[in-house]
From TrEMBL:
Keyword Transmembrane helix: yes
Residue ranges annotated for the Roadblock/LAMTOR2 domain, each copy included: 9-100
Alphabetical list of Pfam families matching this protein: Robl_LC7
Organism: Streptomyces wuyuanensis
Transmembrane intervals: 83-104
Protein name stated in the entry: Predicted regulator of Ras-like GTPase activity, Roadblock/LC7/MglB family
Keywords noted in UniProt: Membrane, Transmembrane, Transmembrane helix
Length: 135
């Protein structure tokens, strides 16, 4: 994970510094394991990654109720007192999560997240795990 973190630092930094009011940027696997982070400590990034696993599962359950949906989540945005939380699908088995302050430009954040995912989506994918080991 350390090598992967080093490879992603500059990409996540670009997003965090390019959108004012960004607090935390985390890349996680579909099973809720932190793959990379920027602007946050490891414990916070791990908590956000774990919460995202539940959120993506909830989004898939809701999406499966739509008649022409495959149930895959693309983007979840949560607005709360004090800020916004974004969770975006980012490659096979990977997600990009961002926590931002209340004053963030929501449109700019969504655009920059999409641009980042399109630009480096292959680097953000996480292979399926079997017995706790990536295959």
């Amino acid at each position: 994970m350390i090598q992967q973190q080093a490879n992603m630092d500059w990409m996540l930094k670009d997003l965090a510094e390019g959108v004012p009011q960004t607090r935390h940027v985390v890349v996680l696997s579909a099973d809720g394991l932190r793959m990379a982070q920027y602007g946050t400590d490891t414990d916070t990034a791990d908590r956000l990654a774990a919460a995202c696993a539940g959120l993506q599962s909830l989004a898939a359950a809701v999406g499966s109720e739509l008649p022409h949906s495959d149930g895959r989540m693309r983007l979840v945005v949560i607005e709360m007192d004090g800020g916004f939380f974004y969770l975006m699908a980012a490659g096979a088995g990977a997600f990009l999560a961002v926590l931002a302050d209340e004053g963030v430009d929501a449109g700019l954040m969504g655009q920059r997240m999409r641009d980042l995912v399109l630009r480096i989506g292959d680097h953000l994918s996480s292979p399926p795990r079997q017995d706790g080991v990536a295959r």
